[in-house]
Design a protein that fits this description.
Ammonium/urea_transptr, transport, Ammonium_transpt_CS, 15 helices, about 65% helix
Length: about 475
Amino acid sequence: MELSWESSVADSINAIYLLFSAYLVFVMQLGFAMLCAGSVRAKNAMNIMLTNVVDAAVGSLSYYLFGFAFAFGEGPNKNPFIGTSFFALKDIPTSNYDYSFFLYQWAFAIAVAGITSGSIAERTQFSAYLIFSFFLSGFVYPIVAHWVWSSSGWLSPSSSSGSLLFSSGAIDFAGSGVVHLVGGIAGLWGALIEGPRVGRFDAFGKPVIMRGHNATLVVLGTFLLWFGWFGFNPGSFNKILVPYPNTADQGNWTAVGRTAVTTTLAGSTAGIVTLFGRRLLAGHWDALAVCNGVLGGFVAITSGCAVVEPWAAILCGFFAAWVLIGLNILALKFKLDDPLEAAQLHGGCGAWGLIFTGLFAKEEFVIQAYDSGRSGLQQRSYGLLLGGGWGLIGAQVVEVMVIVVWVSTTMGPLFYLLHRLRILRISIDEEVAGLDISSHGGYAYNANEEESGPRFYGDYMRIHNNS
């Protein structure tokens, strides 16, 4: 049947909106690259930037071949645990999915690998990046995405089977758990198995400060990520031209705007709280800690961004800052070396974001986000503290637990296998010299004032061979 011109225009506007959101999320790769580069020492800047490029390139192929199918594949053999169709985009587009949707989801997938690479920065063999990036973006992450975001997923709040977990399903609107907790737990296992960088802790076990070499890049990366998050969270509505019934002027466009506001408020609050929190703990105003605090607030609100009031987003950011500060203190106590604080930031704040949603999700907004504003389609659980009962918070806790177990049982053994095969961590000599010169032919900068070692790859090899 031929579509009316009204439907064609609506579909076109929605496609443009989703594509623009995908472009914004992809800009976050540049943000990750700048943040990572500034957070490591100058002798490893080229290495960490290259890993961000590789995450995007390798993730493109793995998500095209397998990942999208595992995440959203539906067909006669569909099941609640893993997708079974659409491999290499076969049979795409369909009535539910098209190429713009694939591109948007691909941008999410490559972000997960970027999170993990920060946890194991400055000491990892480049070949190991290729292996874990392909596996994480092509298999581990898509399975979790299927559970929560596919209409046939067992955790999904939009399950087509009509049977929702605890009569609720888990609300993880833009991926505090699906994206950030997955990346954070993967990074945690990588950092634990590799161990700390040389010199990170002294002979008495006390931490030695290893500051990143360029605060400018860190701030630039933070603002690029902030910009990209406006595609990450509001863009997760997928369609903007969806009017809500029984209202004169409200639709997805209203919820999209509110989602951008809650995102901004959570990140801003977390940044301010981190600023003063670090002032109390360290005695000075720490710009780099504030940047991570802002990102922690964004990570936490990502789950409930579309279903909470702006005032609740401020609470979310407030507690996210203390979660991050507390986990950073614990990380030092247990000698966990994560140069980007990725496990604490994305893992800890991601887990808090899921719990927060179970406490503060508003019934009206849940109906808007998952039923296009049409009440009565099915009973919807909402925030426990708003009178919505235990169903939603129970589903949120289950999501946290299964993600931790799933990623631990997949990425943990992979990192351990790479470690046993001696292809995970570089040698001490290479680490001291720096990955840029030992693995990539030279430093990222012409003048490298931080190090007094060899300036070119040939010089490094002559010293290495003579030692």
